[in-house]
Amino acid sequence: MDGALSLPTTEIPVEELYSKIKPQLDMFKRNGGITLSGGEALLQKEDVRELLLLCKRDGISTCVESSFTLPPQAYESVKDCVDFWLAGLRDTSFGLANFRNDETIIRNIRIVAGHCQKIYARYPLIASRTTEDTHLKRFASIMEATGITEVEIMRCNPNMELFYTLSGIPCKLEQASSIPTDRQFQKACDFFESRHITVKK
């Protein structure tokens, strides 16, 4: 594949990567920092830890987004060098209410909770998948069990099908029926706010 949406990846040592991004990190040092996302950044936990330690050495704020479904060692390995966490509490069952990972998620969030400044939740809103009461209650219960008080509600990406196609991955969701309505979005906002959870819109 070539063109604007190709992914020309390369492997480089962590020190070399840091030297390339440090000028940009220095620009945002006073009111920002670095966020590692993915995929799941902690699948490369050793390299992630090395990069985060370099940032901490130079006074750069650090943030990691995770599904919190990895083995606990991944979180233990970096918990002392992450300032903020984004809990991407995704439902990987595609709306089938298969919540077997909930205990794992709660355990892992508790591992890092005492070592960071704050944890924020991110809730993907997908029509007929995560707009149902079952899912809203499940996410709220995880947040309440772990003391997370703020959530960002993210509507399903309207370009979802295109990104899957370009990546060569079959899309399990139909785009047309996955985009939440304004009413569904407001329902989710009202639900979390009724549980005294602050919603970032």
In terms of topology, how is this protein built?
Elements (H helix, E strand, L loop, with lengths): L13 H14 L5 E4 L8 H13 L3 E6 L5 H5 L7 E5 L13 H12 L4 E8 L7 H14 L3 E6 L4 H8 L7 H4 L3 H13 L3 E3 L1
Parallel strand pairs: 1-2, 2-3, 3-4, 4-5, 5-6
Helix pairs in contact: 1-2, 4-5
Note down, in words, how this protein is organized:
With 201 residues, the chain is α/β, with parallel strands linked by helices. Helices cover 41% and strands 16% of the residues. It contains 8 helices and 6 strands, in the order αβαβαβαβαβαααβ. It has helices spanning 14-27, 45-57, 72-76, 102-113, 133-146, 160-167, 175-178, 182-194; strands spanning 33-36, 61-66, 84-88, 118-125, 150-155, 198-200. The chain has a 6-stranded parallel beta sheet with strand order 1-2-3-4-5-6, with helices on one face. Strand 4 (118-125), helix 5 and strand 5 form a beta-alpha-beta unit. Helix 1 (14-27) crosses helix 2 (45-57) and helix 4 packs parallel to helix 5 (133-146). The protein is globular. The two termini are 35 Å apart. The relative contact order is 0.11. The mean pLDDT is 88.
